[in-house]
Amino acid sequence: MVNPLPLILFIAMAVLGWLGVHPTVTSPASVGLYAAWLFFSVLSASTLRIAAQWEKALVFRLGRFRAVRGPGVFAVMPLIDQVRLVDTRILTLEIPRQEAITQDNVPVSLDGVIFLRVSEPEDAIIRVQNYQHAIRQYAQTALRDVVGSVTLDQILADREALGKRIEQMVEGEIQGWGLEVAGIRIQDIILPEDLKRVMARQASAEREKRANITKSEGDRLAAENLAAAASTMATSPGALQLRTLQTLDSLGSSPSNTVVLAVPVDVMTALQAIPKLVNQQETVAAPTKTEAPAPVPLSEGFFLSKPLPVDESTGEGEGTHA
User: Measured between alpha carbons, how far is 245 from 248 in angstroms, rounded to an integer?
Assistant: First the structure.
């Protein structure tokens, strides 16, 4: 953050000194006095410092830590105090791409990002030479260790859990550094090309299997519904005619379809009744079997009386024999 206060203070003091001393070339004493005033103005202006709302100022007096100042305006001793500003906002640090081998011996390349915040500026500056570089190195080591302890399926299935494990390992190492890890996330996972092709074939086969199962279940349900519909139409004589009319109505709903019904529905019903009439006529025209007369017993037939022939000359009959 640019600090305009020293410049403003220096200009104001220089103007006041000019108005008070009135240095001229003919008066060397006034020129020297004005030069001393300008040097004092520079020192006075350098005492004012500004720290932004997201910054903390660490004041070191003759190399020794003195205090933490800010945010806002604060004063320091010129030529004695040194000020170092520390950003307390959440910082984003990239984890460089790392080559690692998983537990099931699959080589992978991973990179990630660290979300970091300085909670104690004095510890982060005094105890660690470069806290950003140090925490990045810890994160790289933790990333390789975690990847080596899990399988490829676990890495691909749950990146968030992988980041949580790395975060716990890093937090355990940076205790006392005055840093707070807001989170560590895995950004990208790069696999070998041959492994990608194998995984693609596996995913394709799995989807094809699910598609075939879904299609077969749909065919079975469709067959059951068609069988139920056929049973309903068989029990109701007018159901088939209504279904025919509904089909014709659905075809004629579009202007591009034209349906011409040349045969009325009654004629179609009459045609369907012809096979029944033919079967009835064949049944009537078939020859009926006549019952044979009951046989006469031989004893009865033998003793039956028969009329004797009559003699025309005498007019008497010869009688009957038994």
Answer: 5
When the pLDDT of each residue in the chain is averaged and rounded to a whole number, the result is: 80
State the Cα–Cα distance between residues 46 and 307, nearest whole angstrom. 176
Q: Check: pTM over 0.85? Answer yes or no.
A: no
DSSP string of 45-100?
A: HTTEEEE-TTEEEEEEETTEEEEEE-SEEEE--TTTEEEEEEE-SPEEEEEEEEEE
Tokens for 236?
A: 């109701």
CATH 3.30.70.660 correct for 91-195: no
DSSP string, 147-185: HHTS-HHHHHH-HHHHHHHHHHHHHHHSTTSSEEEEEEE
Say whether 118 sits in a helix, a strand or coil.
strand
Give 226-268 pLDDT, tens digit per residue.
888 778 777 776 776 777 777 766 765 666 666 665 556 566 6
Residue ranges per structural domain of the chain: 5-86, 91-195
Element (H, E) at 268: helix 265-285
CA atoms within 13 Å, Cβ hemisphere of 309: 3
Residue with tokens 């033998």: 302
Contact call for residues 107 and 144 (beta carbons, < 8 A): no
CA dihedral 201, 202, 205, 210 (to 10 degrees): -140
The helix (H) or strand (E) run that includes residue 279 is helix 265-285
Phi, psi of 83 (to 5 degrees): -120, 135
CB 74 within 8 A of CB 61: no
